[in-house]
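In this supplementary section we document a worked example of the pipeline. Step one takes a protein sequence of length 127 as its only input; no multiple sequence alignment statistics are reported here. Step two produces a three-dimensional model, which step three serialises into structure tokens for compact storage. The input and output of this example are shown verbatim.
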Amino acid sequence: MLEAIHHIAIICSDYERSKHFYTQVLGLEVVREVYRAERDSYKLDLAVKGHYQIELFSFPNPPARPSRPEAQGLRHLAFAVTDLDAAIASLRTHGVETEPIRTDEWTQRRFTFFADPDNLPIELYEM
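The serialised model returned by step three reads:
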């Protein structure tokens, strides 16, 4: 029945800061940006290598996301990378710190985590 994951929606607390993070730091491509006056909300559609993936929303006064200890719901967002060390180095040039590299015990692939401006956990998984 299902064909693919169409998109992931993220609500941010500071639209301009998160827009900068996802487009300038992570390098996602802007597909479309819309301001919805009736909601006082922006919707930014972002793509990874031409594939529409993320909807970044702003809303007035959204509640904070519970994070630690981990709460129910979506746990994290994961991006595939071909060179984990290069991706970490790129993040560090933007002042983004990552957790220590771990190895998936089943696949033997390396991965790490970092946080977006609202402390949403993001994983980089080396393919």
